[in-house]
Amino acid sequence: MKATTVCGALLVLAMATGCTRDDDAIGPAQKAGKAVDEAGDKVAKGLRAPLEKADEAAQQARERAEDARRHLAERTEAARDKIVDATEEAGRGLEKATGKVGEKVEKVGEKMQEAAR
Fold first, then answer.
1. Interatomic CA distance for residues 9 and 3, integer angstroms
2. Could you give the dihedral angle defined by the CA atoms of residues 55, 56, 58 and 62, in that order, rounded to the nearest 10 degrees?
């Protein structure tokens, strides 16, 4: 019996070493999972380029909007400066005209006084 037991044990060991799992061999569920992962990666890669283009277009639109805002602010400031200058010039012209009218009124008043004497 001992010989049978030893032979049986050796047979079990031989079978056990022959049934070891190969790490490279994958089952059908693993193959399906891998295929799903690869398909997901392919879709992600396909979407990445259009999303990057959309991001780039949005960034360019923001930059153009900022440039337009800056340009408008500069033009508004220039227009404001022109209005201030024109207002100051009009004020100086009004003072000059008021002075001339005052001189003429004074001359007319002097003439009236001379005529009244």
1. 10
2. 130
Token pair in block for residue 100: 């001339």
User: Which amino acid is residue 53, in one-letter code?
Assistant: K
How far, in Å, CA of 54 to CA of 50, rounded?
Answer: 6
CB 26 within 8 A of CB 34: yes
CA angle 100, 105, 108 (to 5 degrees): 125
Average pLDDT over residues 5-27: 58
pLDDT digits (tens, 9 = 90+) for 67-86: 999 999 999 999 999 999 99
Q: Can you read off the two tokens belonging to residue 78? A: 């220039």
Distance between CA atoms of residues 96 and 106, nearest Å: 15
pTM over 0.70: no
Max CA pair span of the chain: 168
